[in-house]
Structure formats: structure tokens, C-alpha cells
Amino acid sequence: MIAASLHRGVEDLLRQTADAVILPRFRSLAAGEIVEKSPGEVVTVADREAEALLSRGLLALLPGSTVVGEEATAADDGLRAAISGSERAWLVDPLDGTANFVAGSPHFAVMVALLARGRTVAAWMLQPATGLLAAAEAGAGATIDGQRVRVSEAAPAGPATGAVFTRFLPPDVRAGVDAGRHRLGPILPGLRCAGWEYPAIVAGRQDFALFWRSEPWDHAPGALFLAEAGGRVGRPDGSAYVPGDGRAGLLVARSAAIWDEVAAALSLA
């Protein structure tokens, strides 16, 4: 079990970080505060300052642990080794949905996951624009703003509806998706922020999401949250999701039945 004091400490740290360096820059970024770190990918001063605050705070909350942050890893990819190799490692996405943040959309989040020997044991996702906090602990369930949540067990009224993120799909997978999408309900454009996508599935606003690029800081928090709420998370071939395994592709769904429906329709499994 994770100590209640640690849960409170992480929640307080997320909110303090959002209030100090993220929300003050929302819709107020100067041109020099946005940098393209790779083709089509931007980073802002808010990302970097938030990661620095979170890293210091998390190490203080759990001395002897390791922090693997998205921006630090962009500068030194060797940090990934700590995801599976550390006794206790924090995964940090200081500003999930940076493109949304830059565009003035409220769909951005601050996310943290705690791993023990490569296994996700706790997760926190804060939506600064709304104040909503989704959290989970392995074996102890999922919560939103401190209230236990579970996915609806009701079957969809029709074919499953969800988001398919096609940008990074390999050609063979894209062909299967294009050929099978008519077997499903409306394909949504997606919120382009995992910190909003996973809670939307738990809340029943959509049934599934298919991602291809599955960086651990993007998906370890939401994957644990959805699994603890009763949903299903898995690689396209049906195997378990492990944050540090370096594999691509992730299908997440409100139920095992919906997962199977989508995997079959899109020729994933």
C-alpha cells in the first residue's frame, strides 16, 4: 500500500506546480517561450519549469527514488534504463498535451506515475484547467477527486465509439484500420492528451482509444487508472502493457468485450 501521506504529497505537488508555472502561462506564452524540439513536436518554458519543480518535489517525497522526466529523457535517452532498472522510479509528464496548451485548448494535464521494479504501482493525472484529479493505486482502485470510480459494465447501444490516433501508425496497421473502421461507431478525433483521454473512457464519454506511439510517461498513469477502474489495457496483440518495454501500440477500452470488438474490427489481434 502507498502511504496516504505520499498520495497527498504528490497531489499537492501537482497542484502547486500547475499554479506556479503552468496556469500563469496558459494563453499567455511569448513567442520565445515555445520551441520545436523535433519535427511537429513543441516544448514550452512551462514544460521545462514544471518538470524541474516536480522532479525536486518527488525526490523529496521519496528519498532514494529516481525521476524519469519526458524533457530530461529528450536530452538524454539513456535515462530510460531507470524505468525498468530502478527499485523505485517516478515517471513525469510535466505538461501532457503541450500542443493543446500552446493552442489555448484546456485539454492538457500534469501526470506522474510511481514504478516499483518496472511495474506501475500508483498514478496521478491533474487537469489544471478544471482542477480534476484522477488517481489510482495498484490493487486499490481508481478515484476522481477522491471518489472511487468504475467503468460502466453496460454494453454500448451500438458499435463501439472511440479515438484512433493515426499519425504514427505503420502502413500495414493503417491499412487494417482504414479497412475496418466502418465496423465501429463514429471514430472521434481524440483529445490529444492522455490525461483527458483515459478519464473520458472511464466516464463513458467514449468506449476506446488506439494509440501507436506509447511513451511511458504518456501512458503509465492512464493505463493504471483505467485498469483499476475495470477497463482493459493491452498491446494490439493482446499482451500486457509494460511501461519500459519499448514496444509500440496500445489499445485501451472500457471493457474486455469492447477491446475484443475493436481489435477484431481493426485487424489488430
TrEMBL record:
Keyword Cytoplasm attributed: no
Pfam name, any one: Inositol_P
InterPro entries in the cross-refs: Inositol_monophosphatase-like
Keywords: Magnesium, Metal-binding
Entry superkingdom: Bacteria
Gene Ontology annotations of biological process type: inositol metabolic process; signal transduction
GO molecular function annotation: inositol monophosphate 1-phosphatase activity; metal ion binding
Chain positions recorded as Mg(2+) 2 binding sites: 93
Chain sites annotated for binding Mg(2+) 1: 70, 95-96, 218
Cofactor list: Mg(2+)
Keyword Transferase recorded: no
Record family assignment: Belongs to the inositol monophosphatase superfamily.
Protein name: Fructose-1,6-bisphosphatase/inositol monophosphatase family enzyme
Native source organism of the sequence: Stella humosa
